[in-house]
Amino acid sequence: MSKFSISIRPFGVHAILVEWPNKVDEVILNDILRFSNFLETSCLDINKWEIVPAYNSITLILRQEPIQFDRLIKRLKQWYGECGDSKPKQKYLWKLPVCYDLDFGIDLEEVAEKLSLNIKEVVKQHTENVYTVFGIGFLPGFMYLGGLPKSLEIARRATPRLKVQKGAVGLAGKQTGIYPQESPGGWNIIGNCSVPMFNPKSDNPCFVSVGDKVQFFAIERAEYDLHKIEGEVGIYKLEKTKWDA
């Protein structure tokens, strides 16, 4: 198992930040997830601690009392050395529907032009690829999906919009993602996902976890409208399979 040089520092009074080398790398992410699962199952009381893995770090949060940093830093270094071949949690591949109708893909034509592709090629490449969830944040349930094909890499919009529609699927830099609620945003919008990404009333508000995989598939407008109704009444069945690669 790979071992990296990690750094550990206070992150306010109630949190501590464990950092790996500062780059987007799935080997690093897997090491983070392995250590995160080891902390959760063997080291920390998960009723007291919140463990937040993302990209190249784990944030550990203890809300009930201030953290004794000197003691915890020593223990974290020891635990990292002991986690050995412990495995991360089971990962899943989620298949998510996207309607690329131009009513939703408000930047799709401009994206295609800038990338010297036609619209069908943009959609084909976006749906053929399998993405890795490197982080969840910015908004509750907003997934930062890495692994975008180089041919689809495009800069953020020069001027962010004040209002981006819930479910909007965007491109920015080397990433793609879905806006789980209406919000400001500067990503290039190419479609809309018909199923909700975040439900605060659910026991598990965000069904996707860091380390999971996501693949999009294209749907027509009529399917989109049907999925919206099914999602609102809670009968839409998400497609997921175990990811063991």
TrEMBL record:
Domain Carboxyltransferase: 6-208
Keyword Ribonucleoprotein tagged: no
One annotated GO molecular function: 5-oxoprolinase (ATP-hydrolyzing) activity
Enzyme class name: hydrolase
Database matches in SMART domains: AHS1
Keywords: ATP-binding, Hydrolase, Nucleotide-binding
InterPro entries in the cross-refs: CT_C_D, Cyclophilin-like_dom_sf, PxpB
Signal peptide extent: none
EC number: 3.5.2.9
A Pfam family recorded for this sequence: CT_C_D
PANTHER family recorded: 5-OXOPROLINASE SUBUNIT B
Protein name: 5-oxoprolinase subunit PxpB
Organism of provenance: Maribacter algarum (ex Zhang et al. 2020)
Source species taxonomy: Bacteria, Pseudomonadati, Bacteroidota, Flavobacteriia, Flavobacteriales
Gene name for this UniProt entry: pxpB
